[in-house]
Write a structure and sequence with these properties.
This protein is of the alpha/beta class and 585 residues long. It is 23% helix and 22% strand.
């Protein structure tokens, strides 16, 4: 029976991103025991009835998987285990066709059931052998089996190109096949709670997908500005834990979280999963002070086991810093237990290289600085530039700044200014946020006390800034944006510029006073190149052609002077100016 007020899980509707339960083989038998067949049938039946994930295909036992698609292996204990979540550790070592080994943790799925989720880009036969801290349980320890992986036949970009990683130049993100990944994130901190209905979650996902968002930052753990065990923490399955030290887990909560997180992946959006919030809760201590490092490690092992095989990103905590507790210790544990090495960061309330001093576990920097309009923009830009100058080199992007509509401020112009000034200054991407959306606000409950905004997620979803940032991404992806470098020397000090010398330049001129049609002065254009120039309206996507700047000298004339460009803007607003080289082909 489902709890009062919860919604039933819908049956699966698509065949994307399947989770395939497979047969198990005993270490002493070459054919599956009778109990295994019953187990696979039971797992398939339960998943078909509950449809734990929206796009799960429940395959028959032994059906092959596909490259980068998750295969789920179900284990049943043959002994009774008191306190199974805390006391029983289950995992398996997988050997792929190349001979490489990977230790993958399992998660406790309730009652006598544990599950392992496994994915690999390598086709062929994969072998595994389970291990369990309770070595006297033959249902969990020493179970052997094989998985056949075939080439992926679907169209999901995250599966076809592979989960994202830090690129070789350490400045942006890419897929394993070298395809650049443009991080355009949205902030859904409380998107797993039941205030945002399953129907609403799907509508919000469809809206963000259509607008060009590629990442959703979402908390699976203690929420910001909430008491951990308040009713607002619940999803349709209840609270994730029943003890403050996270020693008693509620698998039902995570089953419903699966449905939402995997739905994002289904449409090609990367979930950036936040393990919890760092700063003190309302009227209390920080979450790590309440839970303890060991509790947070249990929590992260559970998240890694559930979601690590999928194309996700980890954010160890929001607004985390050393004074709250041992976040660095937790981050190092997460890094060690994750067999897939998904990109890891923390949402830093200050300089990302200083708020947690021992930040060696992190793969990229994520400053998160306030909501005070252009003042915040300037502070965050300084942090981005500082992070780019640090060693080791890491990608950096703003993880939270100036939610659109927050306390009726920071509307679309601020959002455009943040996006363009950060990207053209070397950010690896950008994360947007909107009032109503981040806290999953509905008419009956604003999602936070005291109330910041009387704005629902439906209102926030339709703020124009989200559309306009998608327009910006589409413009940048017309060009080899992943090779761009900042070039402030190309423009006046109140403008931003980046690009590739001799190939492409993109300039952003922020809004000035009204009745000001002055365009940006652009210097140093290569005189050996034919340049085509146009203005791009970052609010509407319209373009205004500015004609050609013909090369004045041949390519062999090294003494030629660079060319300057200055033309009035079409109207007194902020503008993007594009120069693209036109060469004989």
């Amino acid at each position: 029976m489902r709890s009062p007020g919860s919604e039933p899980l819908a049956r699966p509707k698509s065949r994307r991103q399947p989770v395939i339960p497979i047969q198990l083989r005993s270490r002493t038998m070459q054919t599956p025991p009778r109990s295994t067949t019953a187990l696979s049938w039971l797992a398939a039946t339960m998943l078909a009835v509950l449809a734990v994930t929206p796009s799960t295909i429940v395959a028959q036992a032994g059906q092959p998987g596909e490259a980068n698609v998750v295969v789920e292996i179900v284990f049943k204990s043959e002994r009774r285990h008191p306190d199974p979540f805390r006391r029983v550790d289950v995992g398996a070592v997988f050997t792929d066709p190349k001979g490489d080994r990977r230790a993958v943790p399992a998660f406790w799925a309730g009652n006598d059931t544990w599950k392992i989720r496994y994915a690999s880009p390598h086709t062929g036969t994969h072998r595994y052998r389970s291990n369990c801290s309770a070595r006297n349980d033959p249902g969990l320890h020493g179970v052997e089996g094989t998985i056949e992986i075939k080439p992926y036949t679907g169209k999901n970009r995250l599966i076809r190109h592979g989960p994202i990683r830090v690129a070789a130049n350490r400045r942006h993100f890419e897929h394993p096949d070298g395809t650049p990944f443009f991080w355009l994130g949205d902030t859904w901190w409380k998107g797993l709670c039941k205030r945002l209905s399953w129907d609403g979650f799907q509508k919000l996902t469809a809206d963000r997908k259509a607008k060009g968002f590629s990442v959703v930052q979402i908390v699976c753990g203690p929420y910001p500005d909430e008491e951990m065990f308040a009713a607002r923490w619940e999803n349709e399955g209840g609270k994730p834990y029943e003890a403050r030290d996270f020693s008693i887990a509620n698998p039902r909560y995570f089953d419903y979280s699966d449905r939402r997180i995997l739905h994002l992946i289904d449409v090609g959006i990367v979930p950036a999963i936040v393990g919890g919030w760092g700063r003190p809760q309302r009227g209390g201590k920080s979450t790590i002070a309440q839970v303890g490092a060991e509790g947070y490690k249990r929590h992260w092992r559970n998240l890694v086991a559930r979601y690590g095989a999928y194309p996700v990103v980890w954010i160890v905590a929001g607004e985390a810093k050393d004074s709250q507790g041992p976040w660095s210790e937790v981050a190092k544990y997460l890094k060690a237990v994750d067999p897939y090495h998904r990109p890891l960061t923390y949402h830093a309330p200050g300089h990302p290289r200083r708020a947690i001093k021992d930040n060696t576990a992190f793969d990229f920097d994520m400053p998160a600085i306030g909501h005070d309009g252009l003042k915040t923009a300037r502070r965050t830009l300084d942090l981005i530039k500082s992070c780019r100058s640090q060693k080791p080199v890491r990608p950096v992007l703003c993880g939270e700044a100036c939610y659109e509509g927050h306390m009726q401020t920071n509307f679309q112009y601020v959002q455009r200014h943040l996006f363009w000034s950060f990207i053209l200054s070397g950010a690896a991407g950008h994360t947007y946020g909107a009032a109503g959306v981040w806290q999953a606000s509905v008419e009956e409950d604003p999602g936070i006390t005291p109330v910041y905004d009387l704005t629902t997620w439906k209102d926030g979803m339709n703020y124009p800034g989200s559309t306009q940032l998608g327009l910006g991404r589409r413009l940048l992806e017309k060009y080899p944006w992943s090779r761009f470098e900042p070039h402030p020397e190309w423009v006046e000090k109140d403008c931003f510029a980046a690009g590739i010398p001799g190939e492409v330049r993109i300039v952003y001129k922020p809004r000035r006073n009204i009745y000001d049609w002055h365009g940006p002065k652009v210097t140093g254009l290569d005189p050996t190149v034919d340049w085509h120039a146009y203005y791009f309206d970052p609010a509407t996507g319209r373009t205004f052609d500015q004609g050609m700047i013909k090369a004045s000298v041949s390519g062999n004339d090294g003494a030629a002077k660079p060319v300057e460009f200055k033309k009035r803007v079409p109207s007194p607003q902020d503008w993007v100016l594009v120069f693209e080289a036109k060469r004989d082909r």
